Amino acid sequence: MTAHEPFSVWAPSAQDVRLHLDDQIYPMRPIDGGWWSGDMIAEPGMRYGFGLYNGQEWSKPLPDPRSTAQPDGVHGLSEVTDPDFKWSSSWTGRPLSAQVIYELHVGTFTPEGTFEAIIDRLDYLRDLGVTTIELMPIQPFGGDRNWGYDGVSWHAVHHSYGGPEGLKKLVDAAHSAGLAVFLDVVYNHFGPDGNYNGMFGPYTSGGSTDWGEVVNISGPNSDEVRSFILDSVALWLVEYRIDGLRLDAVHAYDDHGAYSLMEQIQYIADDVASRTGVPRSIIAESDLNDPRLITENAAGGFGLAGQWVDDIHHALHTMVTGERHAYYEDYGSVDALAKTLREGFFYTGNFSSFRGRAHGRPLDLVNTPAHRLVTYTTTHDQVGNRASGDRPSMNLTATQQVLKAAIIYSSPYTPMLFMGEEFGAQTPFAFFCSHTDEELNRLTTEGRRREFSRSGWSDDEVPAPSDPATFAASKLDWDFNPEQREILSAYRQLLRLRKELGLSRSDLTRLIVEVGSEDEPWLAMGHPEVMLVANLSDKKLSVPFGGELIYSFSSPAVGESSTELGPWEFALLRR
Predict the structure, then answer these.
(1) Residues 65-90: what's their mean pLDDT?
(2) Which residue has the higher pLDDT, 517 or 508?
(3) What was the pLDDT predicted at 353?
(4) What is the DSSP string of 92-135?
(5) Which residues pair with 532 in a beta bridge?
(6) CA–CA separation, 58 vs 16, rounded Å?
(7) How high is the pLDDT of residue 89?
């Protein structure tokens, strides 16, 4: 609810609406388009809700779908917030090119699990070489523990993290430290706990994603639902001064209009950037391998600044771990890795065994800057969607971990780290939640265990998401052992060299990628002046590229025309 304006709500499904405000009840009157308005003026600090009459009975006071604060949780009254904030930083922003993103979960990044505690780690992140922190979703959810993808109030900030004021303080502190802030937002489904929106109007349209009902962005009465989403986008970019949004699973949007929702979101970002002079980046998560997302609008695309690209992760992960199950089954060769590094996508219209059909479309390598693809050695999904939430660093040697990082950070794509990988964290990041309905918790646990039992996991290997111990175990341990300090030092070196050596060049047509064979799986990648050579096997190999050693995590034998690499070793060479 916007302060200093009359209380209003979109409730086309209700026959009557009344306002519950500070223990008083006030009538509301219908106005155009399914909206209801009252005479009372919203002022900061007021607690309020709406009662809905369905023709037979009145509902209890329900939170406002457009609530900006839920101090008593998703089932409680909404609170009017003050949009004003005393900003101290003179931030000029950062474009996506040459950025290094750090994905983190507010509740598990620090022992305290708050925005304020993140502020104390900003110097650490800046010294690491990070330029942008990306917060996993922070919208209110049931209980006090959740990944964030069960949010229900898309204009609000989870109270226990620090609420609206806490988020603004974090953004201001990050900007003062020279760091941008991205926010992960979920517009493809509502969480199951505390979602009353359907009682107000057709926010969903039937059908199901894998996580909830399909959001109504193309059906009857969808104009207001789109406005609900677009107003949320503007809120984050304007009032909170967020530098960019990561759109969760856009392939789950039921988006059939002539103007894509993503186009409309990008238009808002462009408008805010032009008015403020501060870049705003919209990044999509998509498994469609569809170049339209990051193709310029004038060329028929949606014009987004970037998208996550899982293909590079999958190709690298399978080479180092040997895992080939489920969606990994077509990867696992140096040729697959080479294709993803050269072209961004592995599936460019070729057959996908996992999907049982052809998948994807090629990128225009001439007109697509490489920085529009965001790459990583792992993400919250690639860890948390494993049965026990085990990280790669819990299963790989330090040499293997740093090898993967060297390949990602030596590529021209925009790199992203997942919190803790930079020191080889030994804590899991399991899926966790704390729904206020115990039946929901039981069904969530059963669903997770049923899902993983198909792959041979026993129930006791899949932690119960609602168990507080699952959440507690997922918190980062900041007490590093000697090996973790070595890994951290290597990450700092690699990120520093990425910047100093200009490895983030965006012209994909000039990128050199050469590989060995199945028997001798080596990789060489770079430019005529600087080349990364890597051994993707557990045996010694000779790579036919030499030069001057710039950096390695080990001690390779570098000659003028070849480099001898031990198992999983790499060398960054000046040629």
Answers:
(1) 96
(2) 517
(3) 96
(4) ----STT--EEEE-HHHHSSS-SHHHHHTTHHHHHHHT--EEEE
(5) 525, 572
(6) 9
(7) 87
CA distances (Å), 11 to each of 65, 226, 517, in order? 10, 15, 63
Which one, of 40, 35, 43, 5, lies nearest residue 19 by Cα?
Answer: 40
Domain closes at, from 27, 46, 62:
62
Could you tell me if residue 55 is inside a domain?
Answer: yes
CATH code (residue 13):
2.60.40.10
What's at 272, amino acid-wise?
V
Active-site positions read 248, 285
Q: What is the pLDDT of residue 212?
A: 87
> Residue 214: what residue type?
V
Please indicate, yes or no, if residue 552 is contained in any of the structural domains: yes
Domain span at residue 536 reads 508-574
Q: Mean pLDDT throughout 106-116? A: 98
User: Which tokens hold the place of 87?
Assistant: 């900003």
| Of residues 235, 253, 327, the one with CA closest to residue 293 | 253
Q: At residue 12, what is the residue type?
A: P
Question: Which residue type, as a one-letter code, is found at position 20?
Answer: H
| pTM for this predicted structure | 0.97
Structural domain contains residue 536: yes
Which pairs count as long-range contacts for 489-494, CB under 8 Å and 24+ apart, including other chains?
490/402, 490/405, 490/553, 491/128, 491/129, 491/402, 491/405, 491/417, 491/422, 491/423, 492/127, 492/128, 492/129, 493/551, 494/402, 494/405, 494/406, 494/409, 494/410, 494/551
Secondary structure percentages of the chain, helix, strand, coil, to 5:
30, 20, 45
Q: Which of 105, 99, 172 is nearest to 130 (CA)?
A: 99
Number of domains in the chain: 2
Cβ atoms within 10 Å of 448's Cβ, excluding its own: 20
Q: What is the DSSP letter of 237?
A: I
Stated as kind and residue range, the H or E segment containing 551 is strand 548-551
Q: Which residues are annotated as a binding site for substrate?
A: 246-251, 310-314, 380-385
Mean pLDDT across the chain: 96
Closest CA to 38 of 30, 221, 545: 30
Among the candidates 16, 43, 62, a domain finishes at 62
Assess whether pLDDT exceeds 80 at residue 456.
no
What mean pLDDT is predicted for residues 103-114? 98
Question: Domain holding 565: CATH number?
Answer: 2.60.40.1180
User: How crowded is the C-beta side of 53, counted as CA atoms within 13 Å?
Assistant: 12
Q: Give pLDDT tens digits for 353-392.
A: 999 999 999 999 999 999 999 999 999 999 999 999 999 9
What pLDDT is recorded for position 460?
Answer: 83
Region 310-332 average pLDDT: 95
Q: Is residue 35 part of a domain?
A: yes
